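#structure-requests
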Amino acid sequence: MIALKKMWKNDYFKTIIAFVLIVAIVLGLFFGLELGLKTTYPLLTVESGSMSIPYDGADSFWLSIMHPFDRTLSIGDIIVVQGVNIKDLNANYPNSDIIIFHSPIDGELIVHRIIAKETINGITYFQTKGDGNGYPDTWPKTPTSGLDPWDNNNPPGVPQNLVVGKVIMRIPWFGWITLFMRDNSLGLPIIIGVILLLVIIEFIIPIIRENSKKNKPQNTTPPQPQMSLIRKPLINGYLRAV
């Protein structure tokens, strides 16, 4: 018990405990979101511009800056995904749900809006489209072009078993950090470098300073007695002190 109290007084020990707690909170938050939102993909980053509506030819980066709270999505958005009951999905375009699903072609995760749905032999299929695809038939116009290629299959659309969930919230801009790390070969080294720099500042430098203080030669010169000044009344016009 005494040893634990001594360790708790150590600043380095406190820092390590704080770091472990931060990691535990982050992991707990992520797994908590999985349970709470009922999906294995609670947080995703938008990495393509198919959901971005073009404004005067602006690209997706400037769209995310100029229109951060649009009802559509832009590159760099972090989206919060909720697992849903297929029967509860809204297919009433243009106010229909934006869903995340595995592509029927290659299995990649796609985020597009529901255009319509159809139930065949007890299985529900969703016709989908990116809000920015098929210009000028972009959202919220009734789409006549730009529909997803699987909508032409027989039966058409995305089968219900490939649907992961729906978008319930978007957080603009912050996903660019994830995209930078993924697309830039220097992304991961930069993050590792920042972590190492923090470790050096927090741990290494204080240890070096402490060791240098211990190794610094002590001043063996005995302290000189201090003179006390006692002010006395003026005598012959001078202020004396002894």
